[in-house]
Each structure stands twice: as C-alpha cells, then as structure tokens.
Design a protein that fits this description.
It is a single chain. By secondary structure, this protein is of the alpha/beta class. Helices cover 34% and strands 22% of the residues. A seven-stranded mixed β-sheet has the order 1-2-7-8-9-10-11. Helix 6 crosses helix 10, helix 7 packs antiparallel against helix 8 and helix 9 packs across helix 13. It starts with a strand and ends with a helix.
C-alpha cells in the first residue's frame, strides 16, 4: 500500500519500516524493528536519495512510483552503498533507464562490485563541496568517509536546510506514529536504540564522526534526514550533543554497570551482592547484566552510556568465560576507550580469568583498572565480606 509523507518543501519520505526482521546485519537484535529511509525531491529536476533494503523493496518502489506520478526520475544520489540502502538501484534503473546516478569515486567502485551490469549507466562523480542543482534546490556534497564505510557522503540542501546524513544520526526502531522525532518521546522510545546503533555500527569511528560534526557546525541545519529512524526538525542541537559525547567516548550519564558471567549461579550471586552494596555507597544508577543472556550489542551500548564497568568472571578451561571473552573482543574491535574497569574473578582451584581480562583491558586506550581485584573461591561467603567491602570502596573511589 502506498505510504509516503511530505516532510519539507518539495521533499517526500518514501521509505518503509520492517518489523519482522530479527537481526540487523544478521547480528544485532531488532525488538522494535527498523526503518529504511529514502527521500525524493520534486523540483524542476527530480532527485531521489538512496533506495532501501530488499525486505521493504515492494513498499519503496511503490512509494517512488506513486510520488513521482507521471514524472521521470532525473537523479539518484547514492549517499551510502551498503546493501540495506543500495539493494534497489538496479530496479530503479529498470523503471527509469535515463536516470543519472550521483556518487563519488569510491561509490562507483562499489557499485561495480555489487552491480557490474550497471557499468554503462549515466553517472556524475562528485567531490567535497561540489553541488547538484535541480531548480530551487541546490545540494552540496559533504564527504563523510568511514562514517561508517569509506564511500559515505552527505548532502546539504540550501533551500530547506536539510542535511541528508546517510547512516549518521540514525537509530534502530521502526517509525510508526510519524516520521519526525518530535512526534515521539524520543528519550523513552528511541534513545537506547540510538545509542546501541551508534556504539555498534559507527562507534569505532569517533575521529571520523568528529570531522563530520565540525563540517556540520558550519551549516545552517534545519532538518536531519538519516537513513534509519526518525527525521529531525526540532531539538537538533540536543541530538548533535549526543553524537559529540558518543564520538569523544564521553560517558552519556552518571552510572555504573556490572557485567557477570556465571556457570552455576555462584558468580552471579556474588555480582548481585556486590551491586547491592555498591548502590548504597555510590549514590548513582547501578545496573546488572548477565553476559550469557544479554546480547553483546546491548552491553556495548551500556559501556557507551556510563563511565565505570565492573566485570565478574569465572575461570573457564584455565581462561576467560567465553561470553565475557566475546565481549572483550567486541570492545577491542570497537575501540572502547576512556573508561574505568574493575574486575572480580572466580575459580574453584586456580582463578586465572582476572589476570587475562586485565591484559586485554590494558590494551585499550586511556582506561583505568581499579585495584585491588576481587578474587572468589567457588562462592561468596561471610569470610569474604571484608574483601567485598574493600572492592566496593575501590570502585566508588575510582
């Protein structure tokens, strides 16, 4: 069914939401679905920005054709060549064979890899600062390499003040009540998903995001049109502030998270006892997560949210309990930095996980590891309370 929305002068959202997809990139859970945004500008010349994922292909193509009506499509701007946004390029060209594709040199290298059959398509190669004029609208291209692929670019429309931001400023979550962020309670409905999206998809590239934010500061931005999630037309500075924090690895808020792995419940029990004491002493939010039950993308998001992380881990095969080890791998891959960590290890005959975790955390940039480490032998007992209290105190003081 046709479902497109006017969002600015001559500007139409022609995307779609997928509520059935369970894993984004076949990795990240989508309990609230995801939207794939595409935009169409009806000026003297018509221009579409990106296509959509194959899961919403029928909806996207139906919207595109209905919004264009009897008009042809003059330009298709490719801001990002990731398949969830480029999957329908060949189908668009089948419908509008005279369309001109607009992208940068790296865009068209990737286009040839995904769609070698489009080698003879009409193309315009653009660079930083170059423009595309369609009549009343002039689009200036802003290169955004590694946010989060090397070919990514954005486009700024001087007529509407809209920044077409590719994957930047996006979020997991389907759009339903409306396409605009101000039609939701964004902090309640989307902020956790926005942080999880940033930390796991873009998080490694904080330096590159900082470069884009500096470019954005020179533009009179009245709207942000991302490829996922709601469109921003109000309170833009607030969301840019979030990206400023996230991209500089600054904690989003005060708080402490406790992550534990546990085979039979003994390490879990120790972590819960610690968290209860910590809540009394710390005077801030303390949240506890079982790494075996909580998806790694959520745990990574929590690391971006707060400044202190406490890890309770049993020794397993003389090493690190596997779900904790997987989390440490993700942390290194996403270049986590500027955080304080505390470690509690458990072992029945040869506790070893703490030393190994310390080695992996020490390889991260600008991290502090709280001393002393807490060591538990099999289970927490009354005789361990003094050591537990000391561990709590050390975490609070860190």
């Amino acid at each position: 069914m046709i479902n497109f929305k006017n969002i600015a002068e001559d500007t139409i959202w022609i995307g779609g939401s997928d509520r059935r997809l369970e894993l984004f990139e076949n990795l990240f859970p989508l309990p609230n679905g995801v939207s794939y945004n595409s935009y169409l500008v009806l000026d003297e010349k018509t221009v579409a920005f990106d296509t959509a994922d194959v899961t919403v292909a029928d909806q996207y193509l139906e919207n595109l054709k209905a919004a264009l009506g009897e008009r042809k499509l003059d330009y298709l701007v490719i801001l990002h060549m990731e398949p969830d946004h480029c999957s329908q390029i060949a189908n668009v060209l089948a419908l509008y064979p005279d369309v001109t594709l607009v992208g940068n040199a790296k865009t068209f290298t990737m286009l040839g890899q995904f769609f070698p059959e489009l080698a003879s398509a009409n193309k315009i190669v653009v660079k930083e600062g170059q423009t595309l004029e369609t009549g009343k609208h002039t689009f200036t291209f802003v290169m955004a390499p590694m946010v989060h692929w090397p070919e990514v670019m954005m486009a700024y429309d001087s007529a509407t003040g809209a920044l077409y931001s590719a994957d930047a400023f996006g979020t997991f979550g389907a759009v339903d009540a409306g396409i605009f962020a101000d039609l939701y309670d964004f902090e309640k409905d989307f902020l956790d998903d926005a942080r999880r999206y940033y930390a796991n998809i873009v998080g490694k590239y904080g330096v590159q995001v900082q470069m884009v934010l500096k470019k954005a500061a020179k533009l009179d931005i009245k709207m942000i049109l991302p490829l996922h999630g709601p469109v921003w037309r109000e309170n833009i500075a607030w969301f840019l502030g979030k990206y400023q924090k996230w991209s500089t690895y600054t904690p989003d808020e005060e708080g402490i998270v406790v992550f534990y792995g546990s085979l039979y419940g003994h390490t879990a029990s120790a972590a819960e006892a610690f968290a209860a004491k910590l809540r009394e002493k710390a005077g801030c939010d303390v949240k506890v997560f079982d790494v075996s039950k909580t998806h790694s993308s959520k745990l990574i998001s929590e690391i971006w949210r707060v400044g202190k992380v406490v890890i309770f881990c049993p020794t397993y095969n003389n090493g690190i309990y596997l779900p904790v080890d997987a989390l440490l791998h993700d942390m290194a891959a996403l270049d986590v930095k500027n955080r304080t960590f505390a470690i509690a290890q458990n072992g029945t005959w040869a506790p070893a996980s703490g030393k190994l975790i310390t080695e992996k955390l020490s390889a991260l940039k600008n991290v502090k590891i709280v001393e002393p480490m807490l060591t538990i032998k099999s289970a927490l007992h009354e005789a361990d309370m003094e050591a537990l209290d000391a561990f709590v105190a050390a975490v609070v003081e860190a």
